[in-house]
C-alpha cells in the first residue's frame, strides 16, 4: 500500500468526532461540567430545543481519550486537517474566523512595526489592531462603483505599500471577497516575500478551495504563510467553527510559536466539543466529497443560468473581467445584480425571505449574494422563480445608487482611538471628528469607518441610508439608527 493510499484511508476517518460519539454512548454518571450532565429528562427544556443527542455529545475539554495526550483523537484530527489543506500545522477555532483574524494580527505584532493591510478587511482584523496596538498602512482594493462592492488588491499596489513601509510586519489581504472575487494570491505572496514579510490571507470564504478541479486553488498552495479559514461558511461545519492554517514556508519557524501562544490567549478554555467535532467531520466530507461537490457546482451553475435566461437581472461575476486584480471566481457564490432588474438588493433580500422562504447570505443596495455550501444542492428552479417574481420598485431608475464612501483620513491608531476618552455626539456633529468605533455595514462586515479615522459627511450619509434599508444594519454603532457616533474627546 502506498503512502498516498494510507493518507486517503486516514482521511476517511474523523478521529475526534468518532471519539466524542463513542464517549456519548457510554454509561456515565457525569458529575463534571457542563451543568446539564447530559440528562435530557431533567433538562427537558434544553432537550426540546436541540434534542437529546447534542447534550450527550457536549463534552468538556481535557479528557483522556478525547483531547489529552500527544496521540489523542484531537491531535490526530488536527494532523489530518493540516494534511488536507496542505499546512504545516492547523488550529481548530471555536470563535469563528474572527478569532483567526485576531490571532493573526496579534502574532504579527512581534514581526514588525506596521501591518500592511487591505482596507476592505473584515472588522475582526481591525479588532486585532485595537488589541495589538499595531499601526496599519492600508492598501485600497478595487471597487465596482456601479454595484458599490469592493474586490481585492493587486500585486503592484501591495508592492508600493510595502516599499513605503520599511517596518512592515506582514501583508494582510482578503481572497476570495464576499462576492466571490479571487485575488492573485501567488503574485501577492511573491511581492510580500520579496519585501521580507509573510503573507496572511483571510480566506474565510474559501475553506472549500482546492477540493475539486473546478474550484480555485487554496491560498496555502499559492504561497500564503498564514491562512484564516471560516470552515462553517461553505465547508460544512457548525456555525462558529473555523480553522487557522500555517504554511510550511520561510516564516513558519517564527510564526508557529507566536500563533500557538496567541491561540491559547484567545480560545475558550471550555471549547465546545460539538463545534470541534464538526470541523473534523467537515474535513472528512470535503476530502471525500467529489460527487457532492459536483452536485453543488451543478446547482450553482443552474442558478446562474436561470438568472441569465430570465433577461431581467445580471450575474455579478460576469463583469469580473473588468478588474485586473481579479483572477478567478468562486463558482459556489451566486451574486445577482437586482437593481438592474428594478429591485434594490435590500428589498430583494427582504421579499425573498418573507414572501418566498428563500434566504440569501447578504444584500447591498444593488445586489444579493446566494451561497451554495460545499455538498449542498439547492433548487435552482425555486430560487429563480422567487427572484423573477419580485415586483419592480417604481422610480428606482431615478434614485441615486448607494455608493461606497471613501474612508476618512487616518488621525490616530485604532488602539489609541478605541481606548481614548470618548463621547457620543449627534451624527451630523461627528463630521470632522475622529471615530472611536469601528462602523461596518453588516454583512459583509467590511469597516466603513475605523477607530482613528475622521468621520466624513459622505460616511454619515452612507450609514444613514444603510440603516434605512429593509435589512440594513451597522455593526458597532452607538444606536441602531446611527443617530449618534462615538468620537474621541468630549463635546
TrEMBL record:
GO molecular function, one term: lysine decarboxylase activity
Orn/Lys/Arg decarboxylases family 1 pyridoxal-P attachment site domain mapped to chain residues: 228-242
Broadest EC class assigned to this enzyme: lyase
EC number: 4.1.1.18
Family classification: Belongs to the Orn/Lys/Arg decarboxylase class-I family.
Protein name in the entry: Lysine decarboxylase
Cofactor: pyridoxal 5'-phosphate
Organism annotation: Kitasatospora paracochleata
Protein keywords: Decarboxylase, Lyase, Pyridoxal phosphate
InterPro entries in alphabetical order: Orn/Lys/Arg_deCO2ase_major_dom, Orn_Lys_Arg_decarboxylase-I, Prn/Lys/Arg_de-COase_C, Prn/Lys/Arg_de-COase_C_sf, PyrdxlP-dep_Trfase, PyrdxlP-dep_Trfase_major
PANTHER family attached to this UniProt entry: ARGININE DECARBOXYLASE
Tagged with keyword Zinc-finger: no
Amino acid at each position: 500500500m502506498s503512502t498516498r493510499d494510507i493518507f486517503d484511508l486516514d482521511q476517511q476517518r474523523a478521529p475526534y468526532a468518532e471519539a466524542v460519539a463513542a464517549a456519548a454512548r457510554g454509561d456515565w454518571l457525569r458529575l463534571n461540567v457542563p451543568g446539564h450532565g447530559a440528562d435530557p429528562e431533567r433538562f427537558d427544556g434544553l432537550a426540546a430545543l436541540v434534542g437529546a443527542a447534542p447534550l450527550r455529545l457536549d463534552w468538556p475539554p481535557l479528557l483522556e481519550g478525547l483531547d489529552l495526550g500527544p496521540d489523542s483523537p484531537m491531535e490526530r484530527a488536527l494532523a489530518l486537517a493540516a494534511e488536507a489543506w496542505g499546512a504545516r500545522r492547523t488550529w481548530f477555532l471555536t470563535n469563528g474566523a474572527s478569532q483567526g483574524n485576531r490571532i493573526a494580527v496579534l502574532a504579527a505584532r512581534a514581526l514588525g512595526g506596521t501591518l500592511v493591510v487591505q482596507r476592505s478587511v473584515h472588522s475582526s482584523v481591525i479588532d486585532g489592531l485595537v488589541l495589538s496596538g499595531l499601526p496599519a498602512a492600508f492598501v485600497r482594493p478595487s471597487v465596482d462603483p456601479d454595484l458599490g462592492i469592493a474586490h481585492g488588491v493587486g500585486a503592484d499596489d501591495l508592492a508600493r505599500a510595502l516599499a513605503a513601509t520599511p517596518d512592515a510586519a506582514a501583508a494582510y489581504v482578503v481572497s476570495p471577497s464576499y462576492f466571490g472575487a479571487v485575488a492573485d494570491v501567488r503574485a501577492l505572496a511573491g511581492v510580500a516575500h520579496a519585501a521580507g514579510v509573510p503573507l496572511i490571507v483571510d480566506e474565510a470564504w474559501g475553506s472549500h478551495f482546492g477540493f475539486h478541479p473546478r474550484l480555485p486553488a487554496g491560498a496555502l498552495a499559492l504561497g500564503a504563510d498564514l491562512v484564516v479559514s471560516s470552515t462553517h461558511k461553505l465547508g460544512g461545519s457548525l456555525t462558529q467553527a473555523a480553522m487557522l492554517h500555517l504554511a510550511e514556508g520561510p516564516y513558519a519557524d517564527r510564526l508557529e510559536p507566536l500563533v500557538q501562544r496567541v491561540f491559547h490567549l484567545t480560545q475558550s478554555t471550555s471549547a465546545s466539543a460539538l463545534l470541534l467535532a464538526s470541523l473534523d467531520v467537515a474535513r472528512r466530507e470535503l476530502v471525500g466529497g467529489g460527487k457532492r461537490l459536483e452536485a453543488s457546482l451543478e446547482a450553482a451553475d443552474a442558478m446562474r443560468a436561470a438568472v441569465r435566461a430570465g433577461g431581467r437581472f445580471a450575474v455579478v461575476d460576469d463583469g469580473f473581467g473588468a478588474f485586473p486584480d481579479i483572477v478567478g471566481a468562486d463558482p459556489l457564490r451566486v451574486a445577482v445584480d437586482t437593481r438592474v432588474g428594478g429591485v434594490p438588493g435590500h428589498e430583494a433580500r427582504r421579499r425573498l425571505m418573507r414572501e418566498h422562504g428563500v434566504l440569501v447570505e447578504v444584500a447591498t443596495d444593488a445586489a444579493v449574494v446566494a451561497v451554495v455550501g460545499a455538498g449542498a444542492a439547492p433548487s435552482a428552479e425555486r430560487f429563480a422563480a422567487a427572484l423573477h417574481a419580485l415586483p419592480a420598485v417604481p422610480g428606482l431608475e431615478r434614485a441615486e445608487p448607494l455608493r461606497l464612501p471613501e474612508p476618512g483620513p487616518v488621525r490616530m491608531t485604532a488602539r489609541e482611538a478605541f481606548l481614548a476618552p470618548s463621547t457620543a455626539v449627534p451624527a451630523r456633529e461627528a463630521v470632522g471628528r475622529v471615530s472611536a468605533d469601528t462602523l461596518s455595514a453588516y454583512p459583509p462586515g467590511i469597516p466603513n469607518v475605523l477607530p482613528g479615522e475622521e468621520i466624513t459627511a459622505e460616511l454619515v450619509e452612507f450609514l444613514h441610508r444603510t440603516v434605512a434599508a429593509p435589512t440594513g444594519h451597522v455593526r458597532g454603532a452607538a444606536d441602531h439608527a446611527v443617530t449618534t457616533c462615538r468620537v474621541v474627546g468630549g463635546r
